[in-house]
Amino acid sequence: MAEAAQMLVSQKQKVLVTNKHGEKLVGLLHETGSREIVILCHGARASKDHFIIENLAVALEKEGISSFRFDFAGNGESEGTFQFGHMRREADDLHAVIQHFSGSNHVVSAIFGHSKGAGDVLLYASKYHDIPTVVEASAHYDPKKGIEKLLGKDFMEKIKKDGFIDIGSANFRVTEESLMDRLSTDMHESCLKIDKDCRVLIVHGSADESIPVEDAFEFAKIIPNHKIHIIQGADHCYSSHQTKLDTVVVDFIKAALQQDKSTLTS
């Protein structure tokens, strides 16, 4: 059995998906042979190779569940330009990925996102209504919060004057247009549009230093069909709580898959 699991872990395949802007999105398919597949979405200034995303793909593999982790446009190996905001555009990237796999031998049964990627999967669920299970880990309830901490005081004056602010390097350039897009993203209004039939797992670390744990409870107030799991002591990237995060997420997805199968056979 262990040998079979090891064989499954090694079946990784690079897949290219073209988004609606003609940009090639690069991802890795972890193929276990399951019809069901889970799409994994990374956070800001990260990629498909972030340890949270990679570890979760391996955890799903061990349970015989296929997954696909990919780089949003402008990140990692994908084409395009890095964008500070554009979460709705990233939700459309996710739609292109889901369409790709829906046209193959797979059924996209769940989507997972961390941090900005968590906001992306919630926005996706509010717009497309075609995925039964959504897992968000450490999403921002109000994307306007925390910008001053990231960009510095008087960020609006700086960006009006120069047209951009670099976060560390020109690789992570915040333009005025992408900043305004982030400021206009209303997670509250969007989440009110999530179907009551869509199961949503809200995960957050109690010691998150980037996005306060209170944001998880705000989402819980407005998402109708939700479960919430606070991982005690965990920081924003679950640095010392990877195994716990993987267990919580995989158990929720497995239970959802079982429920979907029971519904089909009843």
Which structural traits does this protein have?
266 residues; alpha/beta; 8-stranded mixed beta sheet; two-stranded antiparallel sheet; 10 strands; globular; disordered N terminus
The largest sheet, given as strand count, sense and whether it forms a barrel, is: 8 strands, mixed
Q: What oligomeric state is this?
A: single chain
Class by SSE composition: alpha/beta
**What fraction, in percent, of the residue positions are helical?**
40-55%
Taken as a percent bin, the fraction of beta residues is: 15-25%
SSE order: HEEEHEHEHEHHEEHHEHEH
Please give the radius of gyration in angstroms. Answer: 18 Å
- Contiguous low-pLDDT stretches (5 residues minimum) are 1-10
Shape estimate: globular
Tell me the number of strands: 10
Number of helices: 10
Placed side by side, the strands forming the largest sheet appear as 1-2-4-3-5-6-9-10
Descriptive overview:
By secondary structure, the protein is an alpha/beta fold. 41% of the residues lie in helices and 23% in strands. It has ten helices and ten strands. It has helices at 2-9, 51-62, 87-102, 116-128, 147-151, 155-162, 176-183, 187-191, 214-222, 242-265, and strands spanning 12-18, 24-30, 36-41, 66-70, 107-114, 133-137, 164-167, 169-175, 199-205, 226-231. The strands form two sheets. Strands 1-2-4-3-5-6-9-10 form an eight-stranded mixed sheet, sandwiched between helices. Strands 7-8 form a two-stranded antiparallel ribbon. β5 (107-114), α4 (116-128) and β6 (133-137) form a beta-alpha-beta unit. It is globular, with a radius of gyration of 18 Å.
